[in-house]
Amino acid sequence: MKLYIISNRLPAKACKEKNGTFIFSRSEGGLATGLNSLKTTDEKHWIGWPGICVDKKEDEQIISEQLEKLNFHPVFLSCDQYKNYYEGYSNSTIWPLCHYFFAYTEYKNCFWKAYQEVNALFCEKICSIVSADDYVWIQDYQLMLLPGMLRKRMPHLRIGYFHHIPFPSYELFRILPERGEILQGLLGADFIAFHTHDYMRHFISAAERVLNIDFQLDEIQIGNRVIRVEALPMGINYDLYHSVSENPEVQKAINRFQNLFGNHKMILSVDRLDYSKGILHRLWGFSLFLEHHPEYLGKVTLAMVIVPSRDQVNQYAELKTKIDEEIGAINGKYSTIDWTPVCYFYHGFSFEELAAMYFVADIALVTPLRDGMNLVAKEYVATKQNNPGVLILSEMAGCAVELTDAIQINPNDIEEIEQAIVKALEMPEREQKNRINHMQAILSNQTINKWAADFMTEWNDICSKNQRFRLK
Ligand code: G6P
């Protein structure tokens, strides 16, 4: 038996060099990073998009050959499909809707058509590879029609689905013209899970009201199948982050950063460029902090890492300009010859450098307006080992349910962000360590492997139940 993980993006992406050769690197984003560190006893395969649109069959072949060596099976998209399915329906319709950015949602027929087309393309690819007794675990909002499509083709296949972003309340979800088809698509899975109980509750209420069906607690019978839903918060590879300082590369980077930031406090912020992450609110809060607390001028630096993402989608490109302007305004106003308040990086970092930043940072400032989970907050806490450190966390992040020892804030209240920064800077070391240790106890238990094992256990349980049901 094999486990097939299906996601829009493979954990590796291909990039074409000027001389025509391809180079491969790791993909950004919590999903790929998190799931790639997953250990299973089953042979693990991955099906997804390789991060590039190529128009020659020979190029597809070269990319496939390289990726297949890692058990990664690419699904190739045309430029039009990429535009309308990925930038369009996935990231201009579903993403803003699920993150409560209702005014940003765009409805276009060509988006929906491409979304159906690409989900069907994934379905074809899966059917050409998997056997009836394999596990097919579909990830995330880009592939919500896929469980239903697969169920029609392979009625007894084990199909699981995990939703990595928020599932909005029915009042919002009902706005989507294709709400019925999407929900029917999801119900093609045997087991559907979400990060939090609230997302799960919203899904159940949307399904009941849109499709006129009735759940019995967390299960529903449709035809000869029972479908179960559950809340399972995704964890991180805790040991990897908790032991980073033993890695000589990380240690070297730690020494470098400690020399750079040694005499003042460092606040760290790490995100993909996204309006849901509250990056502007964070900058407004930091700016207010500088304005109201001149005693900290020259003593606190905000290191802001923004990983480029979806920059062809209008809202993202506009946000980039606003962030650049805001950072320019803060630095222009407060910088001195030997101090720049916001150290801004618009690119990704290697794992080693990022881990070193987590290790060195006195404070992590995580202020999403909405976030399915947010693994950065978890990675920061794990990396602190037995050292002090403070997490300032938005209550709108899925992980706020678990990380109750963070200083929790409402990111829409920028004065609250300002006050949280002051509170964090003034928090006694003993309290910092206590809070970090409490959160570490939770994270070291709910790891990525535990999350996957819990998912598999419940999924297996419901599949066996359905099998017994069919045999009756
Ligand atoms: C979030 C989503 C993932 C997505 C990732 C990166 O974590 O839940 O499904 O892969 O963002 O976004 P991108 O559009 O670059 O794949």
UniProtKB/TrEMBL annotation:
Gene Ontology biological-process annotations: trehalose biosynthetic process
Gene Ontology terms for molecular function: alpha,alpha-trehalose-phosphate synthase (UDP-forming) activity; trehalose-phosphatase activity
A Gene Ontology term for the protein's cellular component: cytosol
UniProt similarity note: Belongs to the glycosyltransferase 20 family.
UniProt-recorded name of the protein: Trehalose 6-phosphate synthase /trehalose 6-phosphatase
Species this chain originates from: Coprobacter fastidiosus NSB1 = JCM 33896
Residues of the full protein shown: 1 to 472 of 752
